[in-house]
Amino acid sequence: MSESSLFLQFLFSGLTAGAIYALVALGFCVVENSLRIVNFAQGDFLTLGGFFMTTFLLSLKIPWPLAALCSILAVGLCGYLLERIALRSAKTHDPLTLIFITIGASIFIRGLIKLFWGKNPRIFPPLITGEPIRLLGASLTRESLLILAVGFFCVTILHLFYRVSRSGKALRAVAYSPRAAALIGLPVGFLNSVSFFLAGALGAVAGLLIVPVTGVSFDTGVILGLKGYAASVLGGYGSFPGAIAGGLLLGVMEALVAGFISSGFRDVFAFALLFCVLAIKPSGLFGTHEEERV
Amino acid sequence: MAEKRPKILKVENLSKNFGGVQALRGVSLNLRAGEILGLIGPNGAGKTTLINIVSGVVREDAGTIFFEEHLLNELSPWQRAALGLARTFQHIQIFAGLTVLENVMCGAHRLRKTGFWETFLRLPRAVAEEDECRRQALSILSELGLADKANLPAENLPYGEQKKVVIARALASRPRAILLDEPAGGLNEKETEELGEIILRLREKGLAILLVEHDLNLVMRICERVVVLNQGEVIAEGPPCEIQNDPRVLEAYLGK
Amino acid sequence: MSSGLKRDRRILAGLATAIGMIPFLINNPYYLTVLNLSALNILTVCGLTLLIGYAGQISLGHAGFWALGAYGSALLSLKTGLNPWLTTALALGFTLAVSAGMGFTVLRLKGNYLVMATLAFNLAVYFFLVEAEELTGGPPGLPGIPPYTLGSLAFVTDLAAYYLIWPVVLITLFLTFNLVHSGEGRALRALASGEIAAACLGINPRRYKVLAFVLSAAYASLAGSLYAHYFSFISPKTFDIFFSVELVAMCLFGGKGSLWGAVLGAGLLTPLPHFLSIFDEYRDLIYGGLLMGVLIFFPDGLSGLMRKLYGRKAP
Ligand SMILES: Nc1ncnc2c1ncn2[C@@H]1O[C@H](COP(=O)(O)OP(=O)(O)OP(=O)(O)O)[C@@H](O)[C@H]1O
Ligand SMILES: [Mg+2]
């Protein structure tokens, strides 16, 4: 392969991985845009999505579009329950404590997965099949295309939802000031649940897309969750376009470092770069700096 | 005569724009040692912004600030405080989780001479300093009638007493000038009365006081000089009796 | 002397007495190992409490500082043959330099960005340890680290290590109590409670944040060195981000408002997984559930709960 088509090949694989990171990052953003906390169970939503899908598709033999829908709803429900049962009962507003409740939840969910699905990895066949598409000497699988398409579909829908629809605007109001939102009669608790439902659903979508490629085991979500978190911080925490940009950038960067420098040092570079970005631009690439008012 | 007293705080041509809102436009004022200067004006006039800029919490767009012989513009808030310039906040900003006494002892931070190692190893100098700091804080508290509350969590005190605690906290730094942002806001008549007495006593000790206040009765009673701010501009300045009858001031407060 | 410090010193004296006697009652080496690990975690979480509870900053990267202490001291003593005591001090110095540098750049960040930056530091250290095989031995780890010695006594057995590690931890606790009951500790808490108000009293936010950060990194580094020379074997796996997360979980579980929270959190959560290993199936469920439960219902952690029960004011 020529140098340039090699580059293109790495770019494609980077974009595909990046789209997954971006989807996970979107889940973080959705929660940031209502509850203003980091939900470290986001990665486990992805794992749950993958496992639900294996059960619906392979054990219950439900056709895939329906199985996918069921998985998305099921994980959405898990997200809803996490907010409704755990976070809303919390007797504190301290963000760090709330974050560690989600970390507890993450460990708990992994325990549940081990209990129900065991420790062995599972996989299901690709949702779409077909010859890879060849482009300037590099090839792009149909699955990658699907992942990219779904990624862009999700961000468009979310963007419209938040900018245009009434509930989306209400959610943003809650993020801006929960107290003011409650005062003007917005159902703050319900809206927070909705955002966790959305986060769960987004996690499930990422899971559905990644499992045919890599398989799923109880801890798949851990590292992907971290990468998604890194992506959203890189893009500017809470910004939807930032999540997409951060995800794709992280994916491409990793692929290029792995391809041209050393696959082993891929992660060292990725995180060292992230560290540098933050040192130079403390609010990420697309983040806005907020000033405290006194 | 008053004008002989040295200017301790000099603010010249201060301007500040908050994304389109011109909070201050070329404001100048002087605070003299041992004087109580009232700063009044309708809501949004820019009073808090002025205090924020002088204390370094907000950066000015233009203008200079001198405190004694020091040019403050490039200094951070903690450096300004370390020079002996204290302030209080409109929204109290008490340290929750600390007791009343500890809140006040925090105020004495700029007077501390022992560093990390001395306190870590608890060397005699650190112990002595800590004891002295506690004694001073207690004496300030008893002056303000709060001695019996010293060991309560500060955030559990009623609003009026919290307002006193933050004044005590500012005083513990033995400042030469103090900027009070609406100290009487939310206080009842009796508490306001008391507050007036406290502020007058501070002046006796030679402290320069900038008093931002909506309670005009209080301002007229204790200030020697009043500056009126409206939409970021100084519209009047003078002794209380003149200000009270100034048509521009009436217009600013009551509208046309 | 403030009554708070007096009380804390009394409790500490009681704890020290109990710790001193435990080996006479228990001589199962496995239990001693778990107790030694608890002590090292208490040391680290004590530093984290200063950083999180007192200075109000967050770090999910302290396993990285453990790694600097452990690998730093182990490699130096292996490659140069220097005395482990000396290499421990050198590793500590190195960690101080790294954390001070980090403190000045990273502590400008707030909230998520700080969490991510410290995570990124931890991950970068971890992947470096895994990849730089020639230097660090890579994933299989680094065996044969020499133990601490004192004359002809080598601290190799669990019992000997017990009587080395615990005194170090107790002395550090003693000194840290001095610190939190002084003007420095007050300044830290003021900073966590309101940065702007604190700055307006002359407290330099940057200095105190960096101080807490550097101090907590130093405690972690010391714990790491003690760990390396005690077990004589280290591998990168010990220093991954899950350990960082676990350390902060201990801090919150015990209660970040007080140093006793560090003792309780690390003292209880360190042995827990070892005991839960009997029912391996449910380990994560119980651990995760317990963490959630305590933080949901007692957000101030166990020390907060005890304070409520006994109606006492914390230091
Ligand atoms: N941090 C900020 N960002 C944006 N606008 C601000 C900020 N601080 C103040 N302002 C604006 O500047 C103007 C002056 O505000 P300031 O708080 O100084 O008024 P004030 O005289 O203290 O009023 P009040 O009597 O209500 O306290 C107002 O229009 C306010 O909305
Ligand atoms: Mg104001």
From TrEMBL, chain B:
This is Branched-chain amino acid transport ATP-binding protein LivG. The keyword ATP-binding applies. The keyword DNA-binding does not apply. GO terms for molecular function: ATP binding; ATP hydrolysis activity. It comes from Thermosulfurimonas dismutans. It comes from the Bacteria. Gene3D superfamilies: P-loop containing nucleotide triphosphate hydrolases. The lineage of its organism: Bacteria, Pseudomonadati, Thermodesulfobacteriota, Thermodesulfobacteria, Thermodesulfobacteriales. InterPro entries: AAA+_ATPase, ABC_AA/LPS_Transport, ABC_transporter-like_ATP-bd, BCA_ABC_TP_C, P-loop_NTPase. PROSITE patterns: ABC_TRANSPORTER_2 (PS50893). SMART domains: AAA (SM00382). Keywords: ATP-binding, Nucleotide-binding, Transport. GO terms for cellular component: plasma membrane. Residues 9-256 form the ABC transporter domain.
UniProtKB/TrEMBL annotation, chain C:
The keyword Transmembrane helix applies. One of its GO terms (cellular component) is plasma membrane. Pfam families: BPD_transp_2. One of its GO terms (molecular function) is branched-chain amino acid transmembrane transporter activity. The chain crosses the membrane at residues 12-31, 37-56, 85-106, 113-130, 160-180, 210-229, 285-305. It is a multi-pass membrane protein. Keywords: Cell membrane, Membrane, Transmembrane, Transmembrane helix. This is Branched-chain amino acid transport system permease protein LivM.
